[in-house]
Amino acid sequence: MGLFSGLRLIEAVGDTATTQPTIEAQLAPPVMETGVAGLGYLFQPSTFITREEAMAVPSVARARNLICGVISSLPLSLYKKSTGRELGSPLWLEQLDPRQPRAITIAYLVDSLFFFGTAYLEVTSTYSDDGRPNSFAFVANNRVTPTLNRNSTLVEYYSVDGVRRPNDGVGSLITFQGVDSEGILARGGRTIKAALDLEKAAAVAANTPMPTGYIKNTGADLPPEQITGLLAQWKAARAQRSTAYLSSTLSYETTSFSPKEMAYNEASQFLSTQIARLCNVPAYLLSSEMNNSMTYSNILDERRQFVSMTLQPFITAIEGRLSMNDITAIGNVVRFEIDETFLRADALTRLAVIEKMLALNLITQEQAMEMEDLSPNGND
Question: Domains along the chain?
Answer without folding.
Answer: 1-209+259-342 (no CATH), 212-255 (3.30.1120), 345-380 (no CATH)
